[in-house]
Design brief:
The protein has 22 helices and 30 strands. With 651 residues, the chain is α/β, with parallel strands linked by helices. The chain is globular, with a radius of gyration of 24 Å. The protein binds adenosine-5'-triphosphate and magnesium ion.
């Protein structure tokens, strides 16, 4: 039996909207295929050509040195990442806005490339004055404010390694990451705004710093004006140190393999890992992929809604777009503050043309209802993107019709913190899309679906998603743990990079990422993917979002437990529960009928918006949670779900 709902595969492909296609960089599937084949025939030649997209102080002499699993890209090359994101634009984009920023409280800022350059140079000098040297680590724990972008680029300018920790994390989570990375300086703020409240970042930073002997200095941005505790000699106000810092700071050349940042993964599957990225390969691939996938042009207003605390924010808020000289929109706060149309207000106000967001955000909008959208003029949008989780076909179609008016291509981009850049995605003017599929690997990316022995699986069969050849923006190691790097990524399937995701290819060679390998459910000997069952659930008119896990079942081996959130205005009843189960049985087959359908107000998610099935699994199997919840967005969700279980037992 095929593991995946064949109905989806048979749906006709959606051609790129004509108007879009006419102007696109790559305009046909043949053109894509030609590029793909050329890259496959000579990967090193291909990537060396892409290296020209950035400016080198010294050109690389060799494309790749590969001593599995350790890669060096663009060997001998010297560059400065901040030079590429700033200085090289000053000749012709000095007065172009680099950043259109909007605070949650309505405060705004417009910063040109020339101004951003000035701020970055000053802050680079501040870091130098705080004794930060090339190779030292700087932890950044900030709200989504312009200073965050400045801090990132200032680190890059002087060769310091940044470790951004998402501002929603608690003090212990921050301390863990600072200690693991050995950061010397911490950059934070007095607070940030979230749903109208002040998030007391300085308080958490203080509590973390207590437990972090390596932190010698703390720089604090005044964002909210809230009163904060102060440790003289250790703490400095951003504005004070910036005022006395020099405006000039030369961009020094660094080796292509000089470390750029450490970033911890989101912890959907377990303890977060410190993923290490380096300068040359990372910048080349993010620069190239931003151009290609978002079909970026000079007059675009580009908004990637991710927080810079996640890799999407690193690669597609900061480095990729800035290296291309784009105008970016950045928003500090919650999407539903003061109301559920804040994003659409922003799109309308700034005339956003490219919107890149998470699958989980799209599902939230579906749940909130379209009244929030219909109030606004979204005609500036010309391209939409998603990332983070498989997007259910129903949510995809909604995104396409309601937000994109049927006129904007959707790029469903598959990638990971570890891959550094997007790996599988449609090219918006070239690749016909199928809702729910990330479609085809980019040129230069040897993605395959294989067995654990590394053998290809047939179209329509589930296997492991692997990458067969190194790529420039790949992680170089797990910081401080080469052994874990080798074990987790390069030894599960011999000689190939193991993504940890389960996937299928269909007859067109399109990739369907089905979710984590650990999330596959086995019912009566059949392997069912969570993505498949969840997509069926979400295609029920009352369901907004769903997550499936298994619990042991004496007869079937495993039984499916479905957690669902309902669309606005819906309420759970016995009849609805049966209707939902029946719907899944109709769409996929009786085998996939959930043994239980539980309703939840919210699903447990990581702070990057990914559903944490491992917690739901524990809940379904053991009735409680004992696993690591430090990356959970809202701990009360678990409590509510546990209560629900008790209520369900009484029914
Ligand atoms: P951890 O590795 O700590 O569990 P994580 O994998 O959630 O955390 P990320 O690197 O942010 O952290 O997420 C990458 C994962 O997100 C991918 O491996 C995949 O499972 C999922 N993903 C990302 N984009 C897509 C997409 N377009 N379609 C399907 N899945 C996606
Ligand atoms: Mg992962």
């Amino acid at each position: 039996m095929a593991d995946f709902d064949p109905q989806i595969l048979n749906e006709p492909r959606i051609a790129p909207p004509e108007e879009f296609q006419k102007r696109a960089r790559v305009r046909s599937l043949e053109e894509y295929q030609e590029q793909y084949d050329r890259a496959a025939a000579d990967p090193e030649g291909f990537w060396l050509e892409k290296a020209d997209l950035v400016e080198w102080f010294t050109r690389p002499v060799k494309t790749l040195e590969w001593d599995e699993p350790f890669a060096k890209w663009f060997v001998g090359g010297k560059l400065n990442v901040s030079y590429n994101c700033l200085d090289r634009h000053l000749t012709h984009r000095a007065n172009k806005p680099a950043l259109l920023w909007e605070g949650e409280d309505g405060k705004t800022a417009e910063i040109t490339y020339a101004e951003l350059h000035g701020l970055v140079c000053r802050f680079a000098n501040v870091l130098l004055s705080l004794d930060v040297k090339a190779g030292d680590c700087v932890a950044i724990y900030m709200p989504m404010i312009p200073e965050l972008l400045v801090a990132l680029l200032a680190c890059a300018r002087i060769g310091a390694v940044h470790n951004v920790v998402f501002g929603g994390f608690s003090a212990p989570a921050l301390a863990d990451r600072i200690n693991d990375a050995g950061a010397k300086v911490l950059v934070t703020a007095d607070g940030g705004y979230r749903r109208g409240r002040i998030v007391p970042l300085k308080e958490a930073a203080d509590a973390a710093a207590e437990k972090c002997p390596t932190i010698k200095k703390v720089v604090v941005v005044r964002r909210t004006g809230a009163e904060v505790a102060w440790k003289a000699g250790r703490d400095f106000w951003w504005e004070d140190v910036m005022n006395t810092a020099a405006r000039e700071c030369a961009a020094v050349p660094f080796d292509s393999e000089h470390p750029l940042f450490i970033l911890y993964t989101s912890g959907t599957t377990g303890k977060p890992k410190g993923v290490l990225h380096t300068c040359g390969g990372y910048l080349v691939q993010t620069t190239w992929s931003t151009q290609l996938i978002f079909d970026l042009r000079e007059d675009d207003v580009y908004w990637c809604t991710a927080d810079i605390g996640w890799v999407t924010g690193h690669s597609y808020v900061a480095y990729g777009p800035l290296s291309n000289g784009a105008t970016l929109v950045m928003y500090e706060g919650a999407p539903d503050f003061p109301q559920r149309d804040r994003f659409w207000q922003i799109v309308e106000k700034y005339k956003v043309s490219i919107l890149y967001t998470s699958a989980t955000a799209v599902r939230a909008w579906v749940q909130w209802g379209r009244e929030w959208i219909d109030k606004h003029d979204l005609t500036s949008l010309r391209l939409l993107g998603t990332v983070g989780e498989p997007i259910n076909p129903a949510a995809w179609k909604w995104y396409f019709q309601v937000i994109g008016r049927g006129m904007c291509p959707i790029v469903d981009t598959w990638w990971q913190t570890e891959t550094g850049s997007i790996m599988i995605s449609p090219l918006p003017g070239a690749t016909p899309t199928k809702p729910g599929s990330a479609t085809l690997p980019l040129p230069g990316i040897a993605a395959k679906v294989v067995t654990l022995e590394g053998l290809p699986v047939k179209p329509g069969e589930t296997g492991y998603l692997v990458i067969e050849r190194p790529w420039p923006s790949m992680l170089r190691t797990i910081y401080g743990d080469d052994e874990r790097y080798r074990r987790d990524y390069w030894s599960r399937v011999p000689g190939k990079y193991f993504t940890g995701d389960a996937a299928q290819c269909d007859a067109n060679g399109y990739f369907w990422v089905l979710g984590r390998v650990d999330d596959v459910i086995k019912v009566a000997g059949h392997r069912l993917s969570t993505m498949e069952i969840e997509s069926a659930l979400v295609s029920h008119p009352s369901v907004a979002e769903a997550a499936c896990v298994s619990r042991p079942d004496e007869i079937k081996g495993e039984a499916i437990v479905a957690f669902v959130t309902l669309r606005a205005g819906q309420e759970m009843s016995g009849a609805l529960r049966i209707s939902i189960s029946d719907h899944v049985a109709t769409v996929i087959g009786a085998i996939a009928r959930p043994a239980e359908v539980r309703v939840a107000d919210l699903l447990p998610k990581t702070r990057s918006g990914k559903i944490m099935r491992r917690l739901l699994r524990e809940l379904a199997q053991k009735g409680g949670i004992s696993g690591d919840t430090t990356t959970l967005e809202d701990i009360s969700v678990i409590e509510k779900l546990s209560h629900y279980k008790a209520a369900a037992d009484d029914e």
